Amino acid sequence: MLDGEKKIIENAIKGEASAFGLLYDKYQPQIYRFVYLKVGHREEAEDLTHQVFLSALQNIEKYQHKGFPFSSWLYQISRNKIIDHWRTRKITLDIEDAAEQGENDLEIEKIGIKFEIERVKKAIPRLKDEYQNVIIMRFIEELSYEEIAIALNKPQTTVRVLQHRAIKQLKDILEK
Amino acid sequence: MTEEKLIKILSEFKSIEPESGYSKKSRVLLLSLVKPETTPFITTFSFRSIFDFLRVSAVTAFGIILLLTIFGGVSYVNKNFSPILLPGLDQKSVITEADEINNSINVTLKEITYLDNSTAATNNQIDQVANNKKTLVTETVPTPTSTNSRYDQKINDLLNKASQ
Fold it and tell me: How far apart are CA A151 and CA A131, in angstroms?
């Protein structure tokens, strides 16, 4: 969470461009990662991430700060945007194709574990949507259960159960 | 693959970042759409600005009052409690009196000067007259004529008769 985030959000609501710029700089990379790992395509991820922040800008007056990071709200917008993305374009990307498209995009230099990383990257989009969300938020963005619960609009206990099942399903996919 | 290893691999995805060119372009586009919140005149002008104005005015007024109090106090103390002033002393009458004394001194000085000058002049004239008399006495004292002495004799006789 940004220092003085509440005040920054208040200024952004008042129409202060620099305040919204601070929020963008802080949260854009993690929202992009979230979107990218779910759609598996760089250009689409960029387009969707831009739409997420555009929507946030247009609806920021409705945002109510409850002590949680602004990212929780952005994740909610992201999830809706991704759902709309699949619905409107009716893209049923083959998992393998998506993984291949992403292969050129991701520039992971750690050679020793590159192969395994690629396998996991390809496996994530094959998970159930809510499992993907929990895996990305919990293990990549390292959000707390509370933050994930708010972002996914689910109780914390449900988030813990989803996390357990997501890991199990991911391992199953990787072992196949 | 163990769960620990899987979690470790997942954490590697944190290095995924968007291209900087895209991020900059997207940021500029978004911020260009930001519209400052338009508030009605009554809200922008409202109580805050009035309170600000009142606050400045109050501070200024307080400063003026403070200065006046200080100067007034000093003046009052100087006027009423000064050791060189006597109670009941009317300054105007003192000044008038002082002027009168001053004028009388000036008049006296003029008189003294005048008398001094006139004395000197008188002395000169007396000296001149004295000198002239000497000359007259020595040079022009008329000698009694025979006619005068005859008349004087007659006068003396008459006076004697009258006195008898």
Answer: 13
Find, among A61, A52, A46, A68, the residue nearest to A151 by Cα.
Answer: A68
pLDDT at site A31: 95
Q: Does the pTM exceed 0.90?
A: no
- pLDDT tens for each residue of B78-120: 776 666 666 666 778 888 888 999 888 888 888 888 888 888 8
How close A176 comes to chain B (CA, Å)? 11
Q: What is the 3-state secondary structure (H, E, C) of B2-58?
A: CHHHHHHHHHHHHHCCCCHHHHHHHHHHHHHCCCCCCCCHHHHCCHHHHHHHHHHHH
Q: Which amino acid is at B84?
A: I
- How far apart are the CA of B7 and the nearest CA of chain A, in angstroms? 6
Place of tokens 């590697």: B12
> Does B84 touch chain A if contact means CB atoms closer than 8 Å?
no
**Prediction ipTM score:** 0.76
Does the beta carbon of B66 lie under 8 angstroms from any beta carbon of chain A? no
Is A117 an 8 Å CB contact of chain B? yes
Q: Which residues have a Cβ under 8 Å from the Cβ of B35 and sit 6 or more positions away?
A: A15
Burial class for B14, CB neighbours closer than 10 Å (0-12, 13-18, 19+): middle
B26–A53 C-beta distance less than 8 A: yes
Give pLDDT < 70 ranges for chain A. 89-113
Query: pLDDT tens-digit profile of B4-53?
Result: 888 888 988 988 999 989 999 999 999 998 876 665 555 555 566 677 77
Partner A contacted by B20 (CB < 8 A): no
